[in-house]
Amino acid sequence: MQVAVTGGTGFVGVRLIRRLLAEGHTVLAPARTASAATRLRALGATPVPVLAALGSAEVVFQTTRSALPRHPRLVLLSSDAAVQHGRPLVGATEDLPLRPHSPSPVAAAQARAESAALARGAVIVRPRLLWGAGDPALPRLWAAVRAGRFSWVGGGCQLTDTTHVDNAVHALLLAARHGQPGETYFVTDQDPVAYRHFIADLLAADGLTAPARTLSYRRAHTLTALSEAAWRALRLPGRPPLDYLTLWRAGLECTVDTAKARAQLGYEPVRSRGQGLAELRDALSCNA
Prior knowledge:
It is globular, with a radius of gyration of 19 Å.
């Protein structure tokens, strides 16, 4: 199978390309370049699966529209952010409405992008709390703990689902084969855990002890609202130091139902949380 991949140097993209090559597929990456577009045209009318991050969806649409006489299967990686609006999610399904007017600018943008992609027949895979060795967010977490800038929001005991990067990659490949156009699929490690326990395991992988300091959700929400408002008023680039999406992920329960992915894609996790943590510890040990 010939597959086009965007974001091939990113956290998920590296693992995705590695898996595709190991299975003997031909990979065209990145799909946004002129050379990749030329290679796509050489395939003629062959429907090429295109695997991309949601943020690059419009680039993918433009490239493939000019490169192929017929639309390929578009499989886009999104997240639970598209349905986040500041309330706990318990056993959430794909029937939840998108939140294009979410208080979080990031979540709202993701909801709008999903809506546009689904209207064009894309298949969307939504992991919850993506993680694994090579995750660029982990060094920031470790640095915050070392600097004494980390607190548990609301105690951190709420349940959360997680999705190891290998499970997300597995779901993308299943979606390329079996996903229905215009459909969305939640995928996770299928093992909900207290947020505090999960983060403590990530800290322990780098030899850190989880701090005891806590911050009430109400207090954290007030600080975040001030941070978001100041960022908008000053029109500063990037994300504010405290943002709504991070607050919700750290302080609200979020569990999702993967029944649709299991039924329609045949999805089951290929890596357990224990295996992922062991890989993370090994990677850190080698780097040290």
